[in-house]
Amino acid sequence: MTLVAGVDSSTQSCKVVIRDAETGVLVREGRAAHPEGTEIDPAHWWTALVAAADAAGGLDDVAAVAVGAQQHGMVLLDEAGDVVRPALLWNDTRSAPQAERLTAELGGPGAWAQGVGSVPVASFTVTKLAWVADHEPDAAARVAGVCLPHDWLTWKLAGAPGVGALVTDRGDASGTGYYSPREGTYRRDLLAAALGHDAVLPRVLGPAEAAGTTAAGALTAGALLGPGTGDNMAAALGVGAEPGDVIVSIGTSGVVSAVAPVPAADPSGTVAGFADATGRYLPLVCTLNAARVLDATARMLGVDLERLSELALQAPAGAGGLVLVPYLEGERTPNRPEATGALHGVRLETAGPAHVARAAVEGLLCGLADGLDALAANGATIQRVLLVGGGARSTALRAIAPSVLGHPVLVPPPGEYVADGAARQAAWVLSGADAPPAWAIEGTESFEADPTPAVRERYAEVRDLTARRPH
């Protein structure tokens, strides 16, 4: 049996899966936690990867490995390859003013959408570079190279062979704000406008192009390295998504993405026109608030997540008019980094745990349904909706999702689909084939329910009545 390893270096943790390269059967796995926060020393990612690999029984027997990781994270390196400052993560919203400035000064939303497929928001790497240039000019001046979390980990696995040896893939590069997925080239003018000068950027590899081999002392020596990719691209590869499939992922963030044969360019900024990990495209809508909305509501009600789910199913559809607008960490889509959450429609009959629980589930889903509508408006074909991520483990969310999203929902069994996608990429690189291996997913469940447009109409009535967080 030939083994491959896939890594998911997410916001909260690192997961490693080891699978049979031919069949995809899981052989073993491990995980380790990351520190909390919206900025982090990348060294913690490497420490967690070492621990997760050790928990998975080591990587000495794997033939190939690839890394999927959180998108957008800004990793700055000096000429010696040392990290200049802690990485700013996708969910750090401090660069919202820089996003507005860059958009206004460099052609407006339409020019950005056509140029790089997306309109800058605080999540994107380009805005974080501008924040560093504005607030930490000495650090900005030291920057010799810029990369993303998966790029940095791949580089570390290769033995950190110098800043000039950094590599990436078009999927993760498409989320930086200075790479055009349509043209397949970097926009160095945008990089320089943000950072104040040019810098080394990772070489963009093809979907199944090897990134070299792992170095001695880097967990295992001589294993083939895949190009890696961003977490959303890896998840799409992990579930075997094809054109016509829409993936709704409920994790730390909420993501609605569609595999498409042509690039997207939405001047409203709602849809990010990313590339995928197979040579196609991945138009995507991302919200900052997803599974943690359920965590926060459970904490507020003093219950665990299982009880929260039970409560939500006890309340009627629409929660009697009670609506939770779930902007608990600001919001990315719509672009409201300073917004706060809000609970609307509290009356005597709705001021109870069941109605609040139902409102939390429905509010979370309404935000994702808005994303589904935006993808459709930008030409995405919706034939299947696949529900994945930690939030998909909620019984209430699975049951309510079809009525709010307006489509039947397929729920693959719980799994580490980002790590699985990375492992599938590693197997693809190892095989040298024209397409990734066909790994079957057993145990997918189907959920159907009549659409409840009144729920979304009520949500739309109050969605924009949100406040800025106090300063």
Structure description:
The chain is an alpha/beta fold and 471 residues long. 34% of the residues lie in helices and 20% in strands. The protein has helices spanning 43-55, 96-105, 108-116, 125-135, 137-142, 149-157, 170-173, 188-195, 231-238, 291-301, 305-314, 353-377, 395-405, 417-431, 453-462; strands at residues 3-9, 13-20, 26-33, 39-40, 62-69, 75-77, 87-88, 145-147, 167-169, 179-180, 185-186, 203-205, 224-225, 229-230, 245-250, 254-258, 272-275, 281-287, 323-325, 342-344, 384-388, 409-411, 445-447. Strands 1, 2, 3, 5, 13 and 14 form a six-stranded mixed beta sheet that branches. It has a five-stranded mixed beta sheet with strand order 17-18-16-15-21, sandwiched between helices. A two-stranded antiparallel sheet has the order 4-7. A hairpin with a 3-residue loop joins strand 1 and strand 2 (13-20). Helix 9 (231-238) packs across helix 14 (417-431), helix 11 crosses helix 13 (395-405) and helix 12 packs across helix 13. The model has no long low-confidence stretch (mean pLDDT 95).
